[in-house]
Amino acid sequence: METIGYIASVLIGISLGLVGGGGSILTVPVLVYIFGISPVMSTSYSLFIVGSTSLVGAYGKYRRGLVNVKTALFFGLSSMVTVYLTRMLLVPLIPQNLFHIGHFQVTEPLLTMALFAVLMLVASIGMISGGQTQPGCLECDLGRNIVKLGLSAVGIGLTTGLLGAGGGFLLIPTLVLVLGMPMREAVGTSLLIIALNSLVGFAGDLGHFVIDWYFLLTVTLVAVAGIFIGGLLARKLDSGQLKKSFGWFVLAMGCFILFKELILS
């Protein structure tokens, strides 16, 4: 199973290199179901893996002039604070046993994976639909758009903090539709924001968990290698069709996780 897990880690990196935002959403399921790590610990490990791989991807985009650093830092500030506070203060307070529904016990691991499955379903719909979006205009309604940006930043911060997911499928539409950023620049900028959010969130976990650094760094390096493979493949393959195909796979995985956690558990 460990060998399968490392192969899956390569595929995580490849998917991130191929489809960009949303490509790392399989990290937590791989850690839980293949490596056998607890869901809460997996969200912590995922923050480091997603953050590191996104940082490598962002550097490649930056070299090609496709990262708006000022926007990443401005937008990332609210979400980074949210992620850090969520991991530092909120996650340690969540009890192991949450509540009962009749005879059904809802535990923290079960709720974590159920919420992650719902997140996968939402992300998959965005990947499958894949429609072209027209850039918005920040200045056209400055007050309302600033509120939208603030709420989006906090929402993405909570998503990253609670579930260990980068939130690229939420972030890219915000950059395009609210800030009016071109799609290619939005993808590169989102990678930098995801990297900052995830690594800051992981820093909030230090002291709460015993980290297996050898395992974590090994999986991260394998995933980073996958990014370079994915980047090479992306130049030769139809990225739009790939994203739709990956979306269908994520949809199937989300349904499987919900079935396993709610029906088979």
UniProtKB/TrEMBL annotation:
<feature type="transmembrane region" description="Helical">
    <location>
        <begin position="42"/>
        <end position="60"/>
    </location>
</feature>
<feature type="transmembrane region" description="Helical">
    <location>
        <begin position="149"/>
        <end position="179"/>
    </location>
</feature>
<dbReference type="InterPro" id="IPR002781">
    <property type="entry name" value="TM_pro_TauE-like"/>
</dbReference>
<keyword id="KW-1133">Transmembrane helix</keyword>
<feature type="transmembrane region" description="Helical">
    <location>
        <begin position="6"/>
        <end position="35"/>
    </location>
</feature>
<keyword id="KW-0812">Transmembrane</keyword>
<dbReference type="InterPro" id="IPR051598">
    <property type="entry name" value="TSUP/Inactive_protease-like"/>
</dbReference>
<feature type="transmembrane region" description="Helical">
    <location>
        <begin position="186"/>
        <end position="207"/>
    </location>
</feature>
<comment type="similarity">
    <text>Belongs to the 4-toluene sulfonate uptake permease (TSUP) (TC 2.A.102) family.</text>
</comment>
<feature type="transmembrane region" description="Helical">
    <location>
        <begin position="213"/>
        <end position="234"/>
    </location>
</feature>
<protein>
    <recommendedName>
        <fullName>Probable membrane transporter protein</fullName>
    </recommendedName>
</protein>
<feature type="transmembrane region" description="Helical">
    <location>
        <begin position="110"/>
        <end position="129"/>
    </location>
</feature>
<feature type="transmembrane region" description="Helical">
    <location>
        <begin position="72"/>
        <end position="90"/>
    </location>
</feature>
<keyword id="KW-0472">Membrane</keyword>
<dbReference type="Pfam" id="PF01925">
    <property type="entry name" value="TauE"/>
</dbReference>
<keyword id="KW-1003">Cell membrane</keyword>
<feature type="transmembrane region" description="Helical">
    <location>
        <begin position="246"/>
        <end position="264"/>
    </location>
</feature>
